[in-house]
Please model this.
Amino acid sequence: MSHTLTDSGARGARRAAPDRRKKKPKRKRRTGRWIAIGLVLVLLALGGTAWWMYHSLNSNLNNVDIDKALGDDRPEKLPTSGQNILVLGSDSRAGANSALDGAKVSGARSDTALVVHIPQGRSRATAVSIPRDTLVTRPACTTTSGRSLPQAQRVMFNSVYSTGGPACVVKTVEKISGIRMDHYMEIDFAGFKGLVDAIGGVTVTVDKPIHDKSSGLDLEAGTHKLNGTESLAFVRTRHGVGDGSDLGRIGLQQQFMLALLSEIKKQDLLGSPTKTYKIADKLTSSLTTDSGLDSLTSLADFGRSMQGVDPNTMETIMLPVAYDKQDPNRVVAAEPQAHDLWKALRAGEPVPESAKKSPATGG
Model:
């Protein structure tokens, strides 16, 4: 699972000039992802699944023992911290994923990362997205395979996954936020494509044409029903929208997440066990969790515990960032906004508006 930063750095070098980066994207700050919310909706629909379906879906799941790799050097679990889940969308080019991307890239990276925070009472939720180009300090960590890595400064956040795997990503996020992650979930690109195809596509509307040779996305302005491959290109496009950086595509990912949820709701999964099974089969086949959620029973129990959370009112925030002074193609956490954001979540309090402002987007 090794991968250098050559590909990521090359993409960064092709971005627009600094004066274009100051332009405000139409959609800012709110950067929810399809993964966590869609998973919960599917899990809630599985309550009456027959035993044979359960056995089949359960055998699909992969899991990693995050707790064993992290040991005791972790943030304290506070009474006010509620539940916190780190959700990753990985862009492995191995196996079925190799056909989903034209780039000649090996290994895997965390293409999408968000911390889903559910306060005590589980009646609301906040999702914080961490831009993949964010420069971070990766703390000394032990991979899930037992390999020790020393601390490394000023590394791109999405490189931590390829270098150290899930355990090192969790360790890094806990170091950044001061929040203990209760659970870990990961879905790969092949799973994303299969999920969209299983529900019959997702309808989106774009105000301006999007033509991105890198992702293969070619859309005129208007309404389109996207299949799995097209949806994958839609959420991954970066050169066809905004300033060409990861920040520019965040608005599209938010739009797609809402469209996906709307499509799932229209399908009445609770009233269609066959449809539910098909979707759940695609999702669980590409899902990796921590050992605390390593069975369908555990996942379903967790999903039911969040029945009070309305996905439509889920607050979605991007980690406030500013362009790095040494490397304008990278971003760093903006202070004091980032500090205030994590502090509010640790205390189980609403995030103040001032903590949502990101200098890099002009918000």
Q: What stands out?
A: The first helix runs from residue 6 to 13. Confidence is low (pLDDT under 50) at residues 1-37, 43-50, 93-107. The radius of gyration is 19 Å.
